[in-house]
Amino acid sequence: MTAAALPKPPNTILIIDDNPDTIRLLSAMVREQGRVLFATSGAAGLELARMQRPQLILLDVEMQGMDGFAVNEQIREDPDLRSSAVIFVTAQSSPEAEIACLDAGAVDFIPKPLNAAVVQARVRNHLRLQSALAALDDLANQDGLTGLYNRRYFDRQFAAEFARHRRHQLPLGVVLVDVDDFKLFNDRYGHQRGDACLREVSEALQDGARRPGELAARYGGEEFVVLLPNVTPATLLQYGDWLCRRIAALGISHPSASAAPHVTASIGLCARIPTEGDSAAAMLHAADMALYSAKRAGRNRSVLAGDTLPEMMTG
């Protein structure tokens, strides 16, 4: 199954309101349109939004402490939340109040008292719009041959995940995968069979990158890359070994290969908690050096990079 055929996860709707009665009422109105989460303060809502990355946020304007405008401002400035749409919910129904909400960057405005039909229609419309925008993004970010993400999308997401993991001091993993002796495969079977081989390998990669935040991309030619958030070096090494076995188990005949009579892959791994002195480029370079170590050691294996990133690439 390629990335294009993956089932879409259910929509996530986050309600941020300091009134439990309003939360219960809104939840009942929208629960059939997606997975509903809630927070009773602006700070708690921001934390939950960063963890869950909801498609839609129903945000109360009048809250104690951090009000809705302050919460919305932080949402708009946070790269982790740039794709989350905000609908303001407020008892202020004057034209001036509505204009203020829209000028703040909200996609819509729901006045109180709440009308179930109005709430459901506006939520439904904006979820449809979010889905359409996501579909357009998928087309722009997809590799045409394999259905995986393309390198441009990977580079953007890797930079964002690197910054997020550095900010929260979480371990991040990156995996470089190279199909062994692929030129010999093309020389023997032709490019059509070569393309089919790459698509099968892509499906194996997609099978191993299904958790939220994980992604597999075609990096170029017969080289692929996988991004694994919040993964320790030990777990990443287990993943690399599993991926080697998974690709070998495809059983794609390759008599000209040096490691085995079937298609195999060499894999370079790097996992670490990013520090201020690190860079995404340094992590990728470390994984690349580990990949070449795997090839020099005989191919059809994974190698984990050391704890120290290449000094020439840091900064």
Automatic annotation (TrEMBL):
Domain Response regulatory: 12-127
Cellular component GO terms held in the UniProt record: plasma membrane
EC number(s) given by UniProt: 2.7.7.65
Catalytic activity, as annotated: 2 GTP = 3',3'-c-di-GMP + 2 diphosphate
Sites of 4-aspartylphosphate modification: 60
A Pfam family of this chain: GGDEF
Residue ranges occupied by any GGDEF domain in the UniProt entry: 170-307
BP terms from Gene Ontology: cell adhesion involved in single-species biofilm formation; negative regulation of bacterial-type flagellum-dependent cell motility; phosphorelay signal transduction system
Name of the protein: diguanylate cyclase
